[in-house]
Design brief:
Keywords: Oxidoreductase
Shape: globular
GO molecular function: oxidoreductase activity
Strand order of the largest sheet: 3-2-1-4-5-6-7-8
Strand content: 5-15%
Organism: Microbacterium sp. A8/3-1
Number of helices: 7
Protein name: SDR family NAD(P)-dependent oxidoreductase
Radius of gyration: 16 Å
Oligomer: single chain
């Protein structure tokens, strides 16, 4: 059985993912952004899940949490699920936090990043972005293009020791997607569970939707854009993506 960190696990797809992984017998680390929100994962911790509390919009808090996690029991996989759909936290939460957890956690051999079909409408223009989140300088689509590109970059650079895949969960009925969203909620979290745990899965660098690989935005596989994105993130955070 694997030990898996699921960020953003207090509700929606993240909570469903964590619960399903516990049902399957895996060790799970659930995540809440505050002590108040931690009450939402009490049922999961009562079932044996470990818990971290960290506001992933706070860069230093993410770095501190990564250091604490890295000093504990080895983590096999990370499902980078935490996300916001609007506001100044778009870049810190949707891109910087998964980048830092990826760069700073030394033991995971699988990374799964939550993308969106909306990434196809994202811009590759990295100029003038406020990675600190003091003001809004990117759209939700931009951030999902960036994190999908990060996934492909990690796959390219860390193969074969580490796999990385991105998942479009679809437009599912969650707090973010809205109660009237038309896609199947269960299909929205089953793919990332499989990517994090299936011992026979050899795919890395994939972009997935409901269990099948799809073709992402062309920029995702562009080495120049990959390099520019990594350089921007390293410059903004002071943390470079290491060699694995």
């Amino acid at each position: 059985m694997a030990r898996i960190l699921v960020t953003g696990s207090t509700d929606g797809l993240g909570r469903a993912t964590a619960a399903a992984l516990l049902d399957q017998g895996h060790q799970v680390i659930v995540h809440a952004r505050s002590a108040e929100r931690a009450a939402a994962v009490a049922e999961l911790t009562d079932r044996g899940a470990d818990r971290i509390i960290v506001d992933v919009a706070d860069r230093q808090a993410v770095m501190d949490a990564a250091a604490e996690l890295d000093g504990g029991e080895a983590i096999d996989a990370v499902i980078h699920n935490a996300g916001v759909i609007s506001g100044p936290g778009l870049l810190p939460v949707n891109v910087v936090a998964p980048y830092l957890f990826t760069a700073l956690l030394g033991t995971p051999t699988r990374h799964v990043y939550l993308s969106s079909g909306m990434h196809r409408g994202g811009s590759t223009d990295l100029a003038g972005l406020d990675w600190d989140g003091d003001r809004v300088t990117a759209s939700y689509s931009d951030t999902k293009l960036f994190v999908t590109t990060l996934s492909a970059t990690v796959a390219d650079r860390w193969a074969p020791r580490v796999s990385a895949n991105a998942v479009d969960p679809g437009w599912v009925p969650t707090k973010m997607g809205g109660a009237g969203a038309p896609d199947d909620f269960d299909l929205g979290h089953e793919t990332q569970e499989r990517l994090a745990t299936d011992p026979h899965l050899a795919v890395t660098g994939g972009y997935w939707h409901h269990g099948e690989q799809r073709q992402p935005h062309p920029a995702v596989a562009d080495p120049a854009f990959q390099q520019d994105l990594l350089a921007a993130l390293a410059d903004a955070t002071g943390v470079e993506l290491p060699t694995r």
